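ASSEMBLY PREDICTION REQUEST
Request ID: AP-0331
Submitted by: J.K., bench scientist
Number of chains: two
Total residues: 457
Priority: normal
Notes: Please return the full assembly, not individual chains.
Input sequences:
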Amino acid sequence: MADKMVRFIIERQDGPNEKPYNQEFDVPYRPALNVVASLMEIQKNPVTVDGKRVPPVVWECNCLEKVCGACMMVINGMARQACCALIDELKQPIHLQPARTFPVIRDLLIDRSVMFESLKKIQGWVEVDGSWEVKDAPIQNPYTAETAYEISHCMTCGCCLEACPNVGPQSDFIGPAPTVQAYLFNLHPLGKFDAPKRLNALMEKGGITSCGNSQNCVEVCPKSIKLTTYLAQLNRDVNKQALRNMFDK
Amino acid sequence: MFHTTFYLRRLHSLCGLFCLGAVLFEHIFTNSMAIFGPEALNGSLAMMELIPKPIFLALEIGAIATPLLFHGIYGIYIALQANNNPGRFGYVRNWNFALQRYTAWFLVVFLIWHVGYLRFYTKGVTGTPISYELLQNLFTSSPITTFLYILGMFAAIFHFCNGITTFCMTWGITKGPRSQNVISMISMGLCAAMCCITLVFMGSYFVR
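STATUS: Completed
Returned structure:
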């Protein structure tokens, strides 16, 4: 038993419609300990500080290297990935909460399928199948490749949606991440053929017009994607598209 | 596909910056005449009276009342879509976002009182023309009125100046963080200047 313990205050919830409650756990400290590793310790021995044995805390994780986005949760009030949240850099006791902008399934596990639905709305893909002959892949524009690479880092973790004051049950805003994906596919040499379709989708209710420029998204993005820059670019593109819609007919 | 939300939201943006911005500038310009004394303010009020009545009324309805009502009512709808969280995410822009909505709520109440009392009751019902003496009586009548009027002006000025910054983002004029910061600093400078002018002309009623 290590001398030093790390105290966790975890907001738990037994089911989607159950009331949330807090439970406290102590985890033995070790160098380079992170939140996911601590949750694994709790899973091994789910005993609260009061000595009560409880069902293990449910959470989601995958890659453990800030690439998949699965372990996003609210750590000390900040939406971030649990796998790269080092205990040494966190104020204790450490508060863990589910990202409540999404429906909570159980404990820290959330349902982020709304982002997938949003990606469908903005056509977050490139049409490759059609009546045309499939040839070699077209070259990327070398001048925009760096931007496309940056946006392609988006792992739909949902940090930006959790931080955005305009995303939540009170609003139908699809959020920064899916919106900015439209720009990624508009940059693609084949994807750009569908750019007007994506821009028109962004003009729908809950699209880019719901952005209120609080700019929390760019502050919390774990992949440092310049979301506000691309949102402004999309605003520009959407306005031009609106003019085309009005005057091209 | 007719993107109603998109066009309403863009109209809200245009209304706020141009129509209501012009109204705010006019108010500050005319009211600042109080600094130079009753003659100066009454003189510039008389200048406005030179505009023929029907044209003046058409301007009031078309360029002030309609944009104000649209901006206000649609603005309430927008404000209701926000779950302000500057406590959790205390970044400057997020504070401005929240303040934009807090000032909006205050302005809804303040403008009902301000327009209702001065335009509809005083000028409309009793037929009393607005003059330096009337405003001096109103502003110095109680510390609460003075405070509420200064707060109302500050709220309107902040809402307008922060609106310049967000307008530039919404219309894709400022794209990168550097240009957005430059515009933000300029508009906050303008905000400070307009607030100072307000304090000076409100103060001038007390010293004269």
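REVIEWER COMMENTS: Chain A has two domains: 5-110, 113-247.
SIGN-OFF: pending second reviewer
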